[in-house]
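queue> pop job 88
queue> type: inverse folding (structure -> sequence)
queue> payload:
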């Protein structure tokens, strides 16, 4: 039986073979990958299946959302840690599946559902945090977060269409990688990146003596997210019309 260190090394080698350039991976993945191989190796040694890791992912996402919604700065910090573990589990289920060669259509669909469950809850938790800060107009906040929830679900649907069509253009090839600037632009509309980065800003804004009002940065991001999603949606409609 392989040792724990050997399993960690195998997982890291598999990741390096898949992601040969920083621009081939998601920003959130780069943030969580320093931890995920070590947890994945534990799951493999304990005989925990990839589907069970996905269930853990859902659990961390729900727990993080509940804690982040509590009007207490320490709960929000712990909630952020749960969000970090949420996406770490998203990496781990794939690492466990690739290392143990346990793949299933059910697991893929369950991973997709995990995001559909957790993303709206995370949105609501952030919404409540801004309300608790008592700095901004409630109607404006309602419009912002209802837009985020709606547009993000549309984007998830577009990603699902791409998956069924076998469209892998998001990753790119080694010869056709985007510039680093373009990479950051592309990454900005991916929801896990938004959660792991922007919730840090939200925590800062929750602190009442923090000068920078992040809701205006959020409003800028929402506008950009809406425009990009509309562009992607029109591109799919054009594709189907021509087909």
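queue> result:
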């Amino acid at each position: 039986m392989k040792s724990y260190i050997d399993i960690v090394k195998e997982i890291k080698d598999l990741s390096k073979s898949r992601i040969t350039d920083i621009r081939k991976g998601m920003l959130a993945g780069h943030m969580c990958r320093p931890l995920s191989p070590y947890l994945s190796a534990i799951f493999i040694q304990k005989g925990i299946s990839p589907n069970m890791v996905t269930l853990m992912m859902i659990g961390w996402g729900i727990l993080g959302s509940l804690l982040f919604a509590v009007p207490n700065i320490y709960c929000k910090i712990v909630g952020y840690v749960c969000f970090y573990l949420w996406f770490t589990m998203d990496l781990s289920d794939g690492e466990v599946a690739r290392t143990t060669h346990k793949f299933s259509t059910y697991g893929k669909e369950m991973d997709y559902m995990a995001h559909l469950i957790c993303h709206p809850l995370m949105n609501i938790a952030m919404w409540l945090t801004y309300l608790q800060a008592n700095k901004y107009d409630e109607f404006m906040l309602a419009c912002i977060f209802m837009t985020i929830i709606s547009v993000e679900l549309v984007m998830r649907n577009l990603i699902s269409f791409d998956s069924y069509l076998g469209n892998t253009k998001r990753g790119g090839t080694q010869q056709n990688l985007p510039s680093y600037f373009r990479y950051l632009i592309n990454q900005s509309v991916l929801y896990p990146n938004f959660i792991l980065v922007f919730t840090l800003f939200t925590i800062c804004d929750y602190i009442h003596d923090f000068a920078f009002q992040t809701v205006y940065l959020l409003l800028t991001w929402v506008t950009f997210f809406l425009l990009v999603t509309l562009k992607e949606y029109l591109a799919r409609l054009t594709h189907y019309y021509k087909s």
